[in-house]
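Sequence in, structure out.
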Amino acid sequence: MPASSAGLLRFFEDETSGIKIRPEVVVALSVVLVIVSILLRYVIPV
């Protein structure tokens, strides 16, 4: 098989075991974490 796309095509064909999380979930959790940390900073001033 000729090397195409510097091996990237072959990388994305492999199926890996582990937790599968959609990108939308990761972005949503990040936004929630930022909002909670900002709220905690103003609710509980140190």
